[in-house]
Input
Amino acid sequence: MRFVLYLLMMIAVALGIGFGLSYYALTDGRLFGVAQVGPWHAWPDVGANAPNPYTRGHLARTAAFELGQSEGLQFTATVDSSGLPLSRECSYRIVGNTPLATFWTLVALDEAGVNIAAPDVHPAVRSSRIVRAQDGSIIVNVGKTLQPLNWLEIVGEGPFKLVLTLYDTAAFSGFSSDASMPAIIRGDCA
Amino acid sequence: MIRPLLWLLAGVVLGGVIHIVVILTLPQLAEQSVWRRVAHLDADNQMVILPPVQAGEPNPLGLDPELAYGLCRVDLADGPAYVSGLLPDAFWSVALFDPSGIVTYSTTNRDGIGQTLELGIFNAAQTRLLAQQQIDIAEGLLVVESSSNELLVLVRLAPPHQAMRGRFEQELSEVECGTRS
Output
């Protein structure tokens, strides 16, 4: 009787650890394969011609056209700089500097990857189209209510994620130590 | 006391084995791949412009709304593939995807190739013929060796303003892409 009990316990632990760890590792690569800068994370290996097994798993899950290693790198944020999940109830301010790149774009997506920008505005913010501070740093406001300076207007309810795509960048290529990413600061919440 | 701990340890070890098996077999088990997602497009040996991303609509390919995308499918079993054309003066890049969605080669126009895109894609056997000068190629052709015969060629082009998008997409669709035997 006891043997069966132990066996069941072992199987439960094995299944829990085996599948739980796999899900956890691939959800945003918290264990292996991901470069984390503040709230932003990227899979630097995703555009390599021989990605590591975790990146391969991530590729199989997204099944999207990823950027090649020489084309650029995509950063995703699902939390703000204080670690709270991004919510469409709140407004956010993205402040700071981005790594050296020919240009970058910023989009807001829901969990299924659908662009949630307001229907009559540009669906993306692009580095060449924004106003900057004297020192070249950026301030981009994201939210549903009217914001000053650069405003990415979004619609809908629930959680969202921010995707910053750097094109033709030296970040994480091994040639640049510049890995400064902007902070995401939470503002007023409805 | 020791016995339940041993069983627990065995469970953890078995869990680790399951984890490794899951990670390694996931790419083979996945039902969706980028290859299947574009299978309905008539992109064999021709450049097809992917529809632009609209807010509120699904975007399974993960495309950037700012960019124009040209896609072409080639099979090197029919002969070496060539991609050639003149692109507008803006940022563009080329990526080759194998059937499992891995980028096997990528480059940008900043790599000294300016506005002219001249790319020749060869498999291992064709590269050997190339080295023996049994295949004639034009001077200045960017030679890429591919380990896979079936490839997707994706050209990303970034119009500086959305007003230029139509013209840029037109120029992108005029890029020649295909195999020549």
